[in-house]
Design a protein that fits this description.
- One of its GO terms (cellular component) is endoplasmic reticulum membrane.
- Strand 5, helix 7 and strand 6 form a beta-alpha-beta unit.
- The protein is of the alpha/beta class and 398 residues long.
- It is built from 15 helices and 8 strands.
- The chain starts with a helix and ends with a helix.
- Strands 1-2-4-3-5-6-7-8 form an 8-stranded mixed β-sheet, with helices on both faces.
């Protein structure tokens, strides 16, 4: 009887973690299922630990991910080193082959919902050394303070300080970087930070060297409307669900779960901030095929107290989609990747439209069979194709 019960429990657990409804269009579904299952196991362990009061949800996942970090090891193509830019830890990748001219410079910001990840994580280490070698560029992969220990604006400020340090003439000269060919890039929360610091940089009179390009990979760009069509559709999208994305957003600002609850109900924007909703009005900013309804309905007004205590979710430094047209007009050439099966899809689509409306040169790559995390997904053919398109754009524009 005991063996039968154990077998039954095992079957149920395997079915629970491996039965993941995937859209038919997704390529190599079993690889996606396995990866999503590991994410699911990790988040369930973190939830259980938090329920028992053992540790914070994000701290548990941070611990699990720390086992996937790798040392700064040079290889036959790239020299890898660690240092700090204005006290912010960075990892630098420099191609070993000789160059007769100054190289491109790419400042990369990792994702992880402002709570997870690092430049040392194997996915980002692999991506950075690949980019440095293929692009023949000096890649700076920056770290930043993570929630729940640190909240907004710490993440933004760390990345901005690090980027400003890199853009000094003597620093660029030290690493052999052409000051006319520096770009910024990032994925997910890193895409959010890349967009935010790029906007800030064009308003900073003390920074003489400006960015040539920005490349944003499925960026998170707004926390005002947590019920845009892609979030309505995305309860069961691979890797990143709506509820997990809301948890990331709320943790960016506070450990107070009250904000998370309000954001899940889409009842967190106070009436006095409702004018900002024009910047996330998907009925005017999304292509027709992505609209769930032709008419945009404002979220239910929320408590003024939440916005007073945690003003980050109405701050343009946290939500770059809230920038006015005068700021957007001055942005550099932009590359944006969006994925069809991603709760952040509509953030990227709306940003593409707003940038196009003000005359910014935008290249938009929409991946019809992609999902959140595809870009750095290990061993996935689609990931390789996405990275090669990203590389091709950087070669032509940076």
């Amino acid at each position: 009887m005991g063996k039968t019960i154990s077998l039954l429990i095992s079957v149920v657990l395997v079915a629970y973690y491996l039965y993941i409804p995937l859209p038919d269009a997704i390529e190599e579904p079993w690889k996606v299922v396995w990866e999503t299952a590991f994410v699911k196991i990790g988040t369930d362990l973190a939830s259980f630990g938090e329920l028992l009061g053992i540790s914070h949800f994000m701290e548990t996942i941070q611990l699990l991910m720390s086992f996937q970090e790798v040392p700064p090891t040079s290889d036959e193509n790239v020299t890898v080193m660690e240092t700090a830019f204005d006290s912010v830890p960075v990892r630098i990748y420099i191609p070993k082959r000789k160059s007769m001219t100054l190289r491109r410079g790419l400042f990369y910001i990792h994702g992880g919902g402002w709570c997870l990840g690092s430049a040392a994580h194997f996915t980002y280490d692999t991506l950075s050394r690949w980019t440095a070698h293929k692009l023949d560029a000096v890649v700076v992969s920056t770290d930043y303070g993570l929630a729940p220990k640190h909240h907004f604006p710490r993440q933004f400020e760390d990345v901005y300080r690090s980027l400003r340090w890199f853009l000094q003439e003597d620093v660029l000269e030290k690493y052999g970087v052409d000051p006319r060919r520096v770009g910024v890039s990032g994925d997910s929360a890193g895409g959010n930070l890349a967009a935010a610091v790029t906007q800030q940089l064009i308003q900073d009179p003390d920074v003489k060297i400006k960015l040539k390009v920005q490349a944003l990979i499925y960026p998170a760009l707004q926390a005002l409307d947590t019920n845009v069509p892609s979030q309505q559709e995305g309860s069961h999208f691979p890797v990143l669900t709506r509820s997990l994305m809301v948890r990331f957003w709320s943790e960016y600002f506070t450990t107070d779960r009250g904000l998370e609850k309000a954001m899940l109900l889409n009842q967190h924007v106070p009436m006095e901030s409702s004018h900002l909703l024009q910047f996330v009005n998907w009925s005017s900013l999304l292509p027709e095929r992505y609209k769930k309804s032709p008419v945009y309905k404002n979220p239910t007004p929320g408590s003024s107290e939440l916005a007073q205590k945690y003003p980050g979710f109405i701050d343009v430094k946290a939500c770059p989609l809230l920038a006015n047209d005068n700021i957007l007009h001055h942005l550099p050439k932009t590359y944006i990747i969006t994925c069809q099966y991603d709760v952040l899809r509509d953030d990227g689509l709306m940003y593409v439209k707003r940038l196009q409306n003000v005359g910014v040169h935008v290249t938009h790559h929409h991946v019809e069979d992609g999902f959140h995390g595809t870009f750095s997904f290990p061993g996935l053919k689609l990931s390789e194709r996405m990275k090669n398109q990203y590389l091709s754009w950087l070669i032509k524009n940076l």
